[in-house]
Structure formats: structure tokens, C-alpha cells
Specification:
The complex is a heterodimer of chains A (about 325) and B (about 250). With about 325 residues, chain A is α/β, with parallel strands linked by helices. In chain A, about 25% of the residues lie in helices and about 30% in strands. In chain A, helix 3 (about 70-85) packs across helix 4 and helix 5 packs parallel to helix 9 (about 300-310). Classes of the chains: A alpha/beta (about 325), B alpha/beta (about 250).
């Protein structure tokens, strides 16, 4: 039997959907028992949400004031204390998970497998390398705890319908004070979340300014889409960093991805390969984005986007 | 600030479209252009800027790699690193072994800061910096897009999924860098000449007391499934019609 500990991601109020994807990945391992660990100052509300996820057997609440913010150096020793009871420790391939799991692995002296995209056995997985231009099948030693991050775009969210037990847990781990949280800044919007949205409209360098990006916001709002951006657009300051899609941004899997004024560099394509349908709008008919697009339209975005917004209404 | 160590990896250049070997044993690397991992260039640039801002810290570039990795370390020296160490191996090491190796170097060199790229663009593992920080028992600040150093501390702005997060860490510490931290300088010809005279020491895992762990086995490498080439539409009306037919809008 595999006993899998999932490091639940949350903001103190809501369980992040990435955790639901980790549950689905863990369920694909035969005969698995799934525990979700929640670190926070007060995880009561989030624990109720985690307990209601189908497939979760147990929820551990590790509540202490030091856990109020997700600091890897603070969480890792506590996870190490819990890990003895588990064969696998999974985190999501989000900035939270990527920061945290390698620290746990190193403290345990075991390797990590990053970005699991397919489960072939309890210790055998597929993952992408070279920005997704190759896939490798990796086998780990079953005698060691397996630490992994789960590539969230590769799995569906686990549905509700569970009724896991919730347990308060303390660990004797002593925590470092060398790392302190100062604050966060996010451009929170009413738009759907980029990572989970069914529809995404994304803009590139061609937009030319933050002002012009409003064209995309307006169209996106009309169709209920999240808005993404290429690295070039973020670097130029047209869009904030949390909107970046790609190898070093977000890896997403929407039903429809509309790339507007984006050339289609491999690092960008890495982020959108799992989209069901890719639409490309670009004035250059030779742009590489058209090689992966399901539907392409050659033309000037400044004419096309307003017209598109009008016609979809 | 006396010393900054920057970890550098030799990787396939980011402009190369890699191909998988037909027998599934890996990717084709023969004759392919190799470069400094782009994130590591940014890491080195940041170290150099801290030095040039007046701290006058020594900047030490280190790498684990095949003999030819000397080329990438020479690039680092040409950019402005003072000294380099190559831990020569004949095949790639796993992130945990890399972290153990960098730890051994850190114990010898006692840097105030260790910079790494947040990931290498070959295996995309995104592990080594965090593992090194854990083994060194020091703070980590990953995905840095801004670093301010004062009074034995660093305030680091991190690019996280929700936006930007700021943390304060005590030095010594490990910082892994993201793309927007800075834009690395171009190397000028005279710098390349000067770099040839800078010290580049070569050592081995054995000399550092590291046993090469092979904890994961790669069973096979395959190309990703290709997306079918789609249709081109002639105007917006046709685009809308196609999307409506697919039930997408
Ligand atoms: C290590 C590394 C990591 C990276 N990670 C990422 C990543 O995560 N995400 C990412 O996106 N990139 C990433 N990049 C950058 C990537 O290589 C490209 O530089 C970037 O994606 C280009 O962005 P773009 O398509 O917006 O700009 P460009 O390549 O400049 O393309 C602009 C496009 O707009 C079109 N255009 C111009 N004007 C118009 C108009 N009026 N109407 C319609 N079309 C128009 C042009 O024909 C062109 O195709 C990374 C690079 C490196 C080295």
C-alpha cells in the first residue's frame, strides 16, 4: 500500500485547486491512502474543504502561528517529522510546491521527481524536460520516501464527495527564525483565475503598452476569460508577472487559449500544450504559433480584437 | 559582504530545438550549441552588480560538469567573476548530488551569499538551490526578482503565482533567481582575453568527498505528442463561426 502525504496549498481561507489535482494524481497510484497536510495559523476552514474532496482519507491540521505564511524553511522540518509515516510526499508544481518540496527532500536525503505528468506505477512516472520537448520515464527506489511535485495541468481536479477525518497535529520540530515574511502584492481581480480558467485570452509584445492590454481585458470580460501574457509582454511592463504563461510562468490547460500577438516561442508553447483548443491571431502568417494552433487568423490584432469582441456578443 | 558564490550549469542553448534519439536513450547532444543556463547568467549578473555597487565582494563561479564546462566558466570569468572552480564529472549528476557538491564547496569557501538560477532549462527540475539551502541549514529565497542587501540581511522580492512576495532572510543564504531580476551584460572581447588569465581550478567529486548518488533511473526518453496542424480562417466572422461550432464561445 502507498501512503501519500499531499502538502495542501491554501491562502488561509480557500484550498487551492492545485491540491485537488494532486489528489487525482495520488489516486492513480494503486491502493493508495491519501492524507492532506495543511500548515497555517488556523486551518479549520480549509480543513473542512479538504476533507470534502473525494479520495482524501485524512486531513492533518498543523496549526501554529509560525505557519501563518508559507515559508519553506519553516514548513520543511515539520514535514520531515510527518514524513516517516508515508511512502510518498506530493506537492503541487506551483510556486508554493516548487519552493517547498526540494527542501523537504534534501532534509530527508532523498531525491525529488519534479512535475509528474503521468503515473505508470507507484515509483514510475513520466515528466517533461527541455521545456516539454522531451518526456522521460523515471523510476525511483521504492525503499526511499518519494518526494514529487505534480504538474497540475496534467490532471483533472478531484471532485467533491469525500468525508475524511480531520486531525489536529503538532510536531516537535524546532523552527528557524532566519526567514521572515514581510508581505505580498497581488493584482487581485474579479476575472477568473489564470491557472484554472476554462478560457484564456493572452497577449504578447505586439500589444505595445499596458494601455493597449485593456483591449484584451475588455474582450476577455465579454467571454468570461482569464488574461495571460507572454514573457516579452511582462518584461516590457505591459502585464504583471503573475500573468506570464510558459516554461517559467504558468502551465495551463484551459478549454480554449487565444494567443494574440504572440509569436509562439518554445518557452511560451510549454505553458499551453495542454490547452484543448489553441487559437492564434498574428499578423505574420509564418509565426511559429500557427504550427500548434487549431484555428489561426492572420491579421492586425488592433482591428481583429475589437471586431471579435463585437461579434461574440 | 566578502564573497558571493554563483552556481552555473552548462546546458543546451535555449535557441536550440532539441531532438530525442530514435532509440529513446536520451536527447541528441552531439554538435549542439551549449551555453550558460540563462537563469545562471542572471544569477552571476546580480552577484557582479552587488560587487560593483561597492561591496567589492569576491565573485566565485562554480560548476559541476564535463571537462568542456570550462568554456562556460570562462564566459563567467569574462563577465566579471574573479575565480572559478569546476567539479569535473563525466555525466550529469542529480540535483541532490549537485546540492551536496555545492555544499562541500560552500563549507570550504564560506560565501555570504550563494546565487543559482531558479531552474536549469535542460531538466527543468527547479530543485538544486532549495536542496543546497536545506543541507547548508541556511535560508532560501527562491524565484527572486529583486534583492536588497543591508546589515547582514537580504530583503528579497519573489515572483510567486499570486504576484509578488517579499521576505527577509539572514545571511549567509541561498537565493535562486528569476528572469526579471536583471538583464545580463554582454561580454566584450578584451574581457574574454582577461578571463584567460583568471584562475580556474578543476577538482572532482571524490576530492570533495562526495559519492555520486544515482537515486533515480531514467527508463526512456520520448518526444511529446504533436498537436495536429489546425485550420486557417480568413476573417473574424469565420473565426467566430468555427468557435461557436466547437461550442467554445
Ligand atoms: C530561459 C527562458 C525562459 C523563458 N520563459 C518564457 C515563458 O515562460 N513564457 C514566455 O512567453 N516566454 C518565455 N521566454 C521568452 C520567449 O523565448 C520569447 O522571447 C517570448 O515568448 C516572446 O514573446 P512574444 O511572443 O510576445 O514576442 P515576439 O516574439 O516579439 O512576438 C510578437 C508577435 O506579435 C506579432 N505582431 C506584431 N504586431 C502585431 C499586430 N499588430 N497584430 C498581430 N500580431 C502582431 C508578431 O508577428 C510576432 O509574432 C523565455 C525565454 C528564456 C530564454
Amino acid at each position: 500500500m502507498s501512503k501519500i502525504l499531499i502538502l495542501g496549498e491554501h491562502d488561509g481561507m480557500t484550498l487551492n485547486p492545485a491540491t485537488l489535482k494532486c489528489v487525482t494524481c495520488a489516486k492513480e497510484i494503486a491502493d493508495s491512502q491519501i492524507t492532506v497536510a495543511l500548515f497555517g495559523a488556523d486551518t479549520a476552514a480549509v480543513a473542512v474543504q479538504a476533507a470534502a474532496v473525494l479520495g482524501v482519507n485524512k486531513v492533518l491540521r498543523i496549526d501554529r502561528p509560525e505557519n501563518a505564511h508559507p515559508l519553506a524553511a519553516v514548513f520543511a522540518p515539520q514535514i520531515v517529522a510527518l514524513a516517516v509515516d508515508y511512502t510518498h510526499v506530493f506537492g503541487p508544481s506551483t510556486s508554493f510546491g516548487k519552493d517547498l518540496t526540494p527542501r523537504v527532500a534534501a532534509l530527508l536525503g532523498v531525491p525529488q521527481v519534479s512535475d509528474l505528468m503521468a503515473v505508470e506505477g507507484a515509483y514510475r512516472f513520466r515528466r517533461p524536460i527541455y521545456a516539454g520537448n522531451a518526456l522521460v520515464t523515471i523510476e525511483a527506489d521504492p525503499r526511499r520516501t518519494l518526494i514529487a511535485t505534480v504538474r497540475v495541468a496534467s490532471f483533472e481536479a478531484a471532485p467533491p464527495g469525500g468525508s475524511a477525518t480531520i486531525e489536529l497535529r503538532t510536531t516537535g520540530a524546532s523552527l528557524p527564525t532566519h526567514t521572515r515574511y514581510l508581505g505580498a502584492k497581488s493584482g487581485s481581480t474579479d476575472r477568473p483565475d489564470l491557472q484554472t480558467a476554462a478560457r484564456v485570452v493572452s497577449g504578447g509584445r505586439a500589444l505595445g503598452s499596458a494601455e493597449n492590454f485593456k483591449l484584451l481585458f475588455s474582450f476577455a470580460d465579454k467571454i468570461g476569460a482569464a488574461v495571460g501574457a507572454s514573457r516579452a509582454a511582462v518584461d516590457a511592463g505591459y502585464a504583471p508577472n503573475e500573468m506570464q504563461v510558459g516554461q517559467t510562468g504558468k502551465i495551463i490547460s484551459p478549454e480554449i487559449y487565444i494567443a494574440i500577438g504572440i509569436s509562439g516561442a518554445i518557452q511560451h508553447l510549454t505553458g499551453i500544450k495542454d490547452a484543448r483548443t489553441i487559437v492564434a491571431i498574428n499578423k505574420d502568417g509564418e509565426a511559429p504559433i500557427f504550427e500548434v494552433a487549431d484555428v489561426g487568423l492572420v491579421g492586425d490584432l488592433f482591428q481583429i480584437v475589437p471586431e471579435l469582441e463585437r461579434l461574440v456578443g | 559582504m566578502q564573497k558571493i558564490m554563483v552556481c552555473i550549469k552548462r546546458v543546451v542553448d535555449y535557441n536550440v530545438r532539441i531532438r530525442v534519439k530514435p532509440d529513446g536513450s536520451g536527447v541528441m547532444l552531439d554538435g549542439v550549441k551549449m551555453s550558460v543556463n540563462p537563469f545562471d547568467e542572471i544569477a552571476l549578473e546580480e552577484a557582479l552588480r552587488i560587487k560593483e555597487r561597492g561591496s567589492n565582494a569576491e565573485v566565485l563561479a562554480v560548476s559541476i560538469g564535463v571537462a568542456d564546462t570550462q568554456q562556460q566558466l570562462r564566459t563567467a570569468l569574462a563577465m566579471g567573476a574573479d575565480r572559478a572552480i569546476l567539479v569535473q564529472v563525466d555525466a550529469a549528476v542529480e540535483p541532490l548530488t549537485a546540492a551536496q557538491t555545492f555544499l562541500a564547496l560552500a563549507r570550504k569557501e564560506n560565501p555570504d551569499l550563494i546565487f543559482l538560477g531558479k531552474q536549469a532549462i535542460d531538466d527543468d527540475a527547479n530543485q538544486t538551490g532549495q536542496m543546497l539551502a536545506a543541507l547548508w541549514d541556511r535560508p532560501q529565497a527562491t524565484f527572486a526578482s529583486k534583492i536588497e542587501i543591508a546589515d547582514g540581511k537580504a530583503v528579497v522580492t519573489r515572483e510567486v503565482d499570486a504576484g509578488l512576495e517579499t521576505i527577509e532572510i539572514d545571511l549567509p543564504a541561498v537565493v535562486t533567481v528569476d528572469l526579471r531580476l536583471n538583464e545580463p551584460r554582454y561580454v566584450k572581447l578584451p574581457d574574454i582575453m582577461k578571463a584567460k588569465k583568471k584562475p580556474l581550478d578543476v577538482t572532482t567529486l571524490e576530492a570533495l568527498g562526495i559519492s555520486r548518488g544515482q537515486l533515480l533511473t531514467t527508463i526512456k526518453t520520448e518526444p511529446p505528442p504533436q498537436r495536429q496542424k489546425g485550420v486557417m480562417v480568413k476573417d473574424v466572422a469565420e473565426l467566430v463561426a468555427v468557435l461557436k461550432k466547437k461550442g467554445l464561445i
